[in-house]
Amino acid sequence: MVLANPRADLPVCPLSPSISPHFSTFALAPEYLLPQNHAAVFKPIRTPSREPKQDTEDTFLARTLSTPSTITRWQSFYVPRSSPGRVAPSIHFSEAGRPCGELHILLTLASGMNGKDGIAHGGLVSVLFDELITALANFHREELTSGYTATLKVDYKAPVTTPGSYLLRAWLDERSGGRKAWVKGDIVGVDKDDELIVLAKGEGLVLDVRKSAKL
Fold this sequence. Notes:
alpha+beta; globular; 7 strands
């Protein structure tokens, strides 16, 4: 069942000491790094899929794509629905008044996942959207269920160049309800004038499945 409010066990945790220095030069990051914003505006949270497990779960993101040549930094934030629509000139929310809050991710891509020279492979962009939409959906599902991607659509607007840092954002679409979480998101960077530019847009359907059920 899709929940209107995030689950009580939202994995809030302090920023790692390495995060602020790493993203300090990324034009979209400053408001996320301010400690005074962490209580109510940008809540730093763990990213379970980036944490190695004892079995093979999450090995793709936690091991294969967690190396100096792949995704070198990843910091997630939950943005409550009560947050303002715009915090600073350099920060644009996807749209003011989203009903259920948003998931925002700061990450840095190295050049070991390229297709064209200096450009991240399109398949990697799809992987990022898959993780983005399911992670957001997981915050709004019942505890005894798991989220599985049923459909995923990606619109590529501009190249995602590497190496580089980016902001990913996701939010529940108004169609969500019952076992279906419709999620939209985007990947944004900055141009040569440090202005925000949308590089890709994605949307997908995440199904809520009881953990004892078989697919």
